């Protein structure tokens, strides 16, 4: 009996977790140039210096009023077209689709303020406690139900067996509903916190209301078939009702974004559209604003990606002449030059980008390192090693940086360092088996307990995650 109850307990725990995850997935559906980054399973992360800098400018004032240190939070871009953002640990994940679908900076800032509300409120830690509580309810119900089934079966009582199954499934349903009710409360709390942060930073709450209106319209065809008790988020109309009066009372409700910020926001949207939505997406999106900076930017990027990269050079040069100290224009020119197989031109463009960039973006340094590797002279290869080592010190998990560093060391004849850099690249790309193979080779090339030997040993000792 004890063994059977343990099996039932384990089975229902697994079933409960699967059913809960299915519920969470069901409700979440509603809600460089763009270089692919290290793999996080099923989460396609991208890196882009320009868009990361823009989002950094969005979140810094909000984090300050929320009492959160900026150096404790990272904003991560996710290559997904759905309008969604979420927090995990100390990271705020933002889908590219959320940026594209936000017509104004204020709409996206409202979403970021909501996610910061979750961080400041400690909602993740409390959610884990609620998960444990809900799981306990489900497991106890499953054991009671199983005991009833066993007793009924021994007496050949079909009705009793069905009742026992009902107890087990009913407990799971009760646990799920309780958890979702708790999450809905936390979502409303994060909404309220977002309005407070926006007021404290003298920004409008109109954008977050517009986002909820968008969600409300998206649900128009299925609204009548939704069970509100099986949602982890309140219905959009409920969220609007809870915030509308409060938001409209703010003296900043009708305040508009600065025109310079709107231009940066539109350029980020144009870049994402060009890279991820197809050859004409950026130009079509800004067809009513032909000649605007965003339209020109999107057209230049689309031309180099999908047409003739050499035809994109005069387009980006025109933008550089209009704003010679824009590091991101020089960065894109470097990408264009690489595509046009002009490594020397790419080195010049990326060098200008790194020199101008005040944020010391490791993504730009990686671009320069890549161009220097392709340029091929021994002097350029040694410079590439220097640039890439600095980039890695700022962003250790950048698999592209390690990959280009491996190429540089390989061409310089330093096979041990090349193997170690390859192991690092594979490790941060989630290719652990291959990483261990290269680490084993690298380990043999260095003296025991040397820094390189120790790092190779760390990779070899790493235990692959089960899931």
From TrEMBL:
<feature type="domain" description="Peptidase M48">
    <location>
        <begin position="59"/>
        <end position="244"/>
    </location>
</feature>
<keyword id="KW-0732">Signal</keyword>
<dbReference type="GO" id="GO:0004222">
    <property type="term" value="F:metalloendopeptidase activity"/>
</dbReference>
<keyword id="KW-0482">Metalloprotease</keyword>
<dbReference type="GO" id="GO:0051603">
    <property type="term" value="P:proteolysis involved in protein catabolic process"/>
</dbReference>
<dbReference type="InterPro" id="IPR011990">
    <property type="entry name" value="TPR-like_helical_dom_sf"/>
</dbReference>
<feature type="signal peptide">
    <location>
        <begin position="1"/>
        <end position="33"/>
    </location>
</feature>
<keyword id="KW-0378">Hydrolase</keyword>
<protein>
    <submittedName>
        <fullName>Peptidase</fullName>
    </submittedName>
</protein>
<dbReference type="Pfam" id="PF01435">
    <property type="entry name" value="Peptidase_M48"/>
</dbReference>
<keyword id="KW-0862">Zinc</keyword>
<keyword id="KW-0645">Protease</keyword>
<dbReference type="GO" id="GO:0046872">
    <property type="term" value="F:metal ion binding"/>
</dbReference>
<dbReference type="GO" id="GO:0016020">
    <property type="term" value="C:membrane"/>
</dbReference>
<dbReference type="InterPro" id="IPR001915">
    <property type="entry name" value="Peptidase_M48"/>
</dbReference>
<keyword id="KW-0479">Metal-binding</keyword>
<dbReference type="InterPro" id="IPR051156">
    <property type="entry name" value="Mito/Outer_Membr_Metalloprot"/>
</dbReference>
